[in-house]
Design goal:
With about 450 residues, the chain is of the alpha+beta class. It contains 13 helices and 17 strands. It is elongated and about 100 Å long.
Length: about 450
Amino acid sequence: MAEQEEHEQEEHETRQLLSLARDTFKGIAAYVAWTDGDVTVVASPGAVVAALEERVARLAEATIARESAEEGDLIWEPELAVPEGDPSDAIASVAVPVTSDSQRVGTMGIVDFWRPEIADELRETLIGIAGQLAALHAAAVEPVADAAPEGDAERPATVAPDAGSPGVLEEILESIEDGVVVCDHEELVVVANRQARLLQGAGSEAAIVGRPFPFSIGFRTSAGAQLSHEDHPLVRALHGVIVGEEHHIVDDSEGKPRHLLVSARPLEVGGSTGALLVMRDVTAQLAEKARLTQIAMHDQLTGLANRYLLLDHLQRSFRQVQRRGGSLGLVYLDLDDFKSVNDSHGHDAGDEVLVAVGRRLEAAARAGDVVARFGGDEFVIVAHPLGDPNALGLLTDRIRNVLSAPYNIAGQSFPVGSSVGAVLADAQRDDPNSLLALADAEMYRHKQAGRPNGGGE
């Protein structure tokens, strides 16, 4: 009877550790498989997970079968057969060996929609939890003898630490790079790790723990609006809702806004229903993404939209016109004899002219228009929506006027001509590429007619 109770206690503590790993990393499931064949899986509840059950099992088996290159190395196992549909639906396992006395005794891992580049972020925490699982397993299968066997009198006995003890769990929580908060059923914070305190601008544990969490953890939406009490992720989790990776903002200890991906779920705390909150700081990633997007979608010289962003906006504008009606106009312009500017004044002067043209076009365009450098000395303006039938003509006139003024470059003033063509789209017949071709042809018609400033009709 006592042996069965010990086994049940070991299983309970194992599940607690796996739940900690799963909830911290917002995974689909966490598992540990011992070399003796015993496997424990703790999966997130819900229909989505049920649909993934077979895939998770197959992936865990494939991961368990693999050997890592060195002790403590991560085992990265992507799903080999990507399911039909979006390739991003593929799942993967990030795992570490569970070792005892330098011998592998099992494998512990997380299954989720992972990317290989984030696997290393999990290393220390996974190894820490795996170490506690190993200690727990060792205590169960290799109990310390009352007396050392004859011949081993000089070898000291080793007792495995209690993996479920508060000190061990606190050490694991403090090492996690995500902010972790646990509250009880009365909405009082009972756990807040170091990263959570930093994200909340709290210098000490006492500043958060024991307080009502809405007071301590004030989220704003991604748009900057203060989150109401009933919409707070922890409040919703206390009512049984699983909240997955919502974008919120908090002010850190220096008063700077930090962008977070926030998840929450119900959690048993002291025999009652509490809640777990996990906050992943993605401020740096969002800033880098914005920087790369700026580089990828904008012309580096003028700062205008580039060809790729223009085409994307044009396609979206076409779809909007097809759904909602309205008009879509396109203005295509080319600088006349721009080569002579480079030849006479140098490429630096030519670059200054292109930048100046971009600024003038932005000043002439309406607030909702997109101005792009299409390539070389060619520029395109997407005008949408056009409520007034004469709006495109008025826009074209403004563009011709602003471009007709001389350019002052390096203390010299000289004119640069332009040819401008403008067309209205037939959203039911045209497409973005054909509209660009029509506008280009209209611009070229003006150029061939010998109207340096676009002329008029």
